[in-house]
Q: What sequence folds into this?
């Protein structure tokens, strides 16, 4: 037994040295193939975990150095004979620059994972498509654990240059944002969405606790924060339309005085169309939503995930439009409601995506809120549209003109008689007919008087339109 044990230990040591030798060769090659002998050697060394861990440490260290070197060469030198071209040649295009880096890392991750799957003989890996999500729930098998651990170590070196390159690119995006706000917002969001795409992909393939995944999470947080700041800056820029006014906070007054040009907010145009600032910002929001539509965020989480972006984009626009009507002294309630409905409809169409085949599901709640505002203003317009003062022949000017004729009739000498009834031989019948007519005129005047004084009919200064009280009319006509 002692001799057998000694021979067995010697065999493990020899197997360990052989594996170390093979791993050195494998770690330096781009096309990595796993022979059946190598797979069997790793399987045998699992009986001696200290020896296996030592060999795997060598493997992951050298693979880490190799992948890092390849990544840096892809950034600066490109591929063999200059093809593909160096990634940094596209540094002037932030979206492509970040996308090319992440695509290279994703491809390297897929290749490395397939190599480790083969090395550890992960059961079922041949039936799994490359990049397909792995089941990270429950207790993973030992082969899966070893493969995931080695993959994490091999890819660890890519995190540092990836973050450094992105931070440099982030500074460039900030400069672009300063030069041209609208494009800066869209570019920043495209980068954030791109990073999120690869982040979700890595979470599904190598796990949320992998070092590379955590590095991508940091990059996404930075990109998302930059985008939200750019969006907030756009909202603050709308303040340039708001003149310095009394009653505002000192902070806002100082901001307006120092950063906003003296361009006070103008009232709506005569056609009551949405302002240009609303249309430009809505176009930006539409492009952001079309980019978000391609994200990998789960369908059930999209509305909550997009809510912060929607609030930062929409709220300043709603406040701007409301302030435009607030400072419009000559605007009637009718005109103000029409203007606000036009603005709300334009904004609602933008966030719902009415121009696409199907509305965006992740904006349904905010779209419903805007619809409530629209319905409320439509109700106000209905009330404004149906009053007597808006009907032809019942306008204040028409009533004033009619009252002049009516006053002349009341003060005429023959109000109690009628020349058209003079040919009747019966004076009593003629008097009854004329009295009936006078009574009808008096009652019609009384109804008109009540209607003009009714606030629902929207007459301005109604008491000045009708010079006489109904009782005076009855008295002048000799009626009870």
A:
């Amino acid at each position: 037994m002692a001799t057998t044990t000694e021979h067995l230990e010697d065999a493990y040591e020899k197997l360990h040295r052989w594996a170390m030798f093979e791993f050195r060769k494998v770690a330096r090659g781009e096309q990595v193939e796993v022979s059946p002998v190598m797979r069997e050697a790793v399987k045998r060394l699992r009986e001696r975990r200290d020896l296996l861990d030592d060999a795997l440490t060598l493997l992951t260290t050298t693979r880490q150095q190799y992948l890092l070197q390849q990544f840096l060469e892809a950034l600066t030198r490109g591929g063999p004979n200059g093809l593909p071209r160096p990634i940094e040649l596209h540094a002037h295009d932030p979206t492509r620059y970040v996308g090319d880096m992440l695509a290279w890392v994703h491809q390297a991750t897929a290749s490395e994972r397939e190599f480790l799957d083969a090395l550890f003989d992960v059961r079922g890996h041949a039936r799994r498509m490359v990049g397909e999500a792995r089941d990270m729930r429950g207790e993973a098998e030992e082969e899966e654990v070893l493969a995931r651990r080695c993959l994490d170590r091999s890819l660890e070196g890519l995190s540092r240059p990836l973050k450094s390159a992105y931070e440099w690119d982030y500074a460039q995006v900030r400069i672009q944002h300063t030069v041209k706000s609208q494009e800066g917002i869209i570019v920043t969001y495209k980068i954030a969405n791109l990073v999120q795409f690869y982040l979700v992909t890595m979470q599904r393939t190598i796990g949320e606790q992998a070092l590379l995944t955590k590095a991508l999470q940091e990059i996404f947080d930075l990109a998302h924060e930059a985008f939200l700041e750019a969006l907030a800056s756009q909202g603050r820029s709308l303040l340039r339309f708001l003149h310095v006014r009394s009653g505002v906070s000192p902070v806002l007054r100082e901001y307006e005085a120092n950063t906003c040009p003296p361009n006070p907010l103008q009232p709506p145009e005569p056609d009551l169309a949405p302002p240009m600032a609303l249309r430009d910002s809505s176009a930006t929001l539409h492009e952001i939503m079309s980019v978000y539509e391609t994200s990998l965020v789960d369908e059930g989480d999209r509305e909550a995930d997009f809510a912060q972006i929607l609030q930062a984009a929409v709220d300043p626009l709603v406040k701007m439009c409301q302030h435009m009507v607030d400072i419009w002294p000559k605007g009637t309630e009718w005109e103000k409601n029409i203007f606000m409905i036009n603005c709300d409809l334009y904004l609602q169409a933008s966030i719902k995506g009415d121009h696409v085949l199907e509305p965006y599901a992740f904006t349904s709640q905010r779209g419903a809120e805007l619809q409530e505002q629209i319905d409320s203003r439509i109700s106000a317009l209905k009330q404004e549209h149906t009053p007597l003062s808006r009907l032809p022949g019942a306008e204040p000017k028409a009533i004033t003109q009619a009252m002049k004729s009516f006053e002349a009739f009341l003060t005429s000498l023959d109000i109690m008689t009628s020349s058209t009834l003079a040919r009747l031989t019966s004076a009593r019948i003629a008097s009854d007919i004329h009295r009936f007519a006078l009574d009808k005129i008096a009652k019609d005047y009384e109804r008109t008087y009540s209607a003009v004084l009714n606030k629902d009919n929207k007459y301005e200064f109604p008491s000045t339109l009708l010079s006489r009280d109904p009782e005076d009319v009855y008295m002048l006509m000799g009626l009870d």
